[in-house]
Amino acid sequence: MSSNPPIFTKRRSPSAELMGSEFVSFDEETATATVRYTPPPSFASPRGAVQGGLIGGFLDEVMGTALLAATDGKLLPLNLDLNMSFVGMVPLETITATGRVVRLGRRIAFLEGELRDKDGKLLARATSTAMPTEVPGAPESGEGS
Predict the structure, then answer these.
(1) Cα–Cα distance between 46 and 114 in angstroms, integer?
(2) Which of 49, 77, 124, 142 is a plausible cystine mate for 115, CB 3.0–4.6 Å?
């Protein structure tokens, strides 16, 4: 069942706004977040598609969104590595990303993400190994208990 955690209706990071990010849904059963992006023209490479490093930003953000949603807004990933495979050029049009928590441990999280065009064609894929960390500025867990 999909839900929209309240954390995503309250605030988005400045980088998510820069990327034209729009939270779509979170599926609790599969720990999968779906986000749409509308890349601005300034993201274009000389080829006229989204520049590769910026594609990494889309995938990093959607995987972080999945971890944040899976932990009820308590944890964000601090990446130890991020591996990407580029399958096709990412157009300067609305694209859809999914991020999933593969496994969440006390010290390490394994995440994966995919980026697809408007027709559902796979454009890029990423995996990340990350340390789950508290959201900066959030009240520490266990306070007042």
Answers:
(1) 23
(2) 124
